[in-house]
């Protein structure tokens, strides 16, 4: 992200990383600038609480090195 943006009450911050889930291709996973999971958004921009809980254990820290 290059600037702060708010979607469905979820604030995407400058420096966040995100990608479309490769397995299901039905949601976007958001990570902070350090690579720790922040949450999951549906493709329509709404926050997905159930998938976010599961994603909190994920990290992309190794990819950012």
Automatic annotation (TrEMBL):
It comes from the Bacteria. This is Uncharacterized protein. It comes from Pseudoalteromonas luteoviolacea NCIMB 1942.
